[in-house]
Amino acid sequence: TPLASLRGFAELMLTREFPPAQQRQYLTIMEKETIRLSTLINDFLDLQRIESGHQTYHLESIDLVPLLNQVLALFSFDKTKHTFHSNVPKFPLLVRADADRIQQVLANLLSNAVKFSPNGRTIKVEAAQREEFIVVKISDEGIGIASEMVPQLFRKFFRVDNATTRKIGGTGLGLALVKQIIEAHGGQVWVESTQGEGSTFSFSLPVASA
Ligand code: ATP
Ligand code: MG
Q1: Ligand 1 residue neighbourhood (C-beta within 6 Å)
Q2: Ramachandran assignment for 198, one of left (phi > 0), alpha (psi -120 to 50 degrees), beta (any other)
Q3: Which of 14, 57, 174, 37 is nearest to 109 (CA)?
Q4: Rounded to whole angstroms, how far apart are CA atoms 115 and 55?
Q5: From atom 24 of ligand 1, which residue's Cα is the shortest distance away?
Q6: Which residue's alpha carbon is nearest to atom 2 within ligand 1?
Q7: Fewer CB within 10 A of the end CB, N or C, for the chain?
Q8: How do beta strands 133-140 and 198-206 pair?
């Protein structure tokens, strides 16, 4: 609840004097909560737009390889706890897709891989052609998902509710967005996971015909 926290810290700073270091600490929290709130609102608006049929996709023939490398570089930049391993070919993997939306899918899956592996370890990204589709896999060695939860994961606002996930936080919109975007491209998204060992989220996109 980013708003409650923003309001709380604002009220606190208005009613009492704090030394500069403490002020800075509170402002840092407020800044983080603002970013969280804006992500939440944007995810929510994106889903609303998709579900009401007002999302337009700019489909082009795009190469997934540089896109994957770009998103991966962005993610591995400030994450020292995790080791990122890329198994992406040197040759192009052409799909017919909206690059911005696929970037959003990759960012959501990578952000989940990072936050649901609180002990760090390896996050692996691989991509390869399987018949008429390009399949991308993002694996982590994190907390994993109980098999009975899997059918619900892609539902709006669904979160696995246990002590660990409550501490990690989130809204439950990321995977709903991922599913909507991938299916609108004619692809599929699925997950394989073992509780306590890690998860692999995969999606497919139709190859761009020449
Ligand atoms: P948001 O993405 O909106 O910030 P979120 O990450 O909690 O919030 P989703 O991305 O939709 O929501 O994921 C739904 C739930 O699926 C998560 O709350 C978590 O319980 C589970 N989950 C998703 N990815 C993983 C993963 N890589 N490992 C373990 N559990 C996962
Ligand atoms: Mg998420």
Answers
A1: 43, 108, 112-113, 116, 140, 142-145, 153, 158-160, 165, 170-176, 199
A2: left
A3: 174
A4: 28
A5: 112
A6: 174
A7: C
A8: antiparallel
Residues pairing with 129 in the sheet: 134
Question: For position 80, what pLDDT does the model report?
Answer: 82
Give the total residue count for the chain.
210
- Output the CA 172–ligand 1 centroid distance in Å: 6
Q: How far is it, in rounded angstroms, from Cα 173 to Cα 31?
A: 21
The pLDDT tens digits for 41-69 are: 999 999 999 999 999 999 999 999 999 99
* pLDDT at 173 (0 to 100): 95
Segment 158-175 shows an average pLDDT of 91
The pLDDT tens digits of the residues spanning 85-139 come to: 999 999 999 999 999 999 999 999 999 999 999 999 999 999 999 999 999 999 9
Q: Choose the residue to mutate in 122, 140, 175, 179 for probing ligand 1, maximizing ligand atoms within 8 Å of C-beta.
A: 175
> Global pTM?
0.91
Nearest CA to ligand 1 atom 15: 159
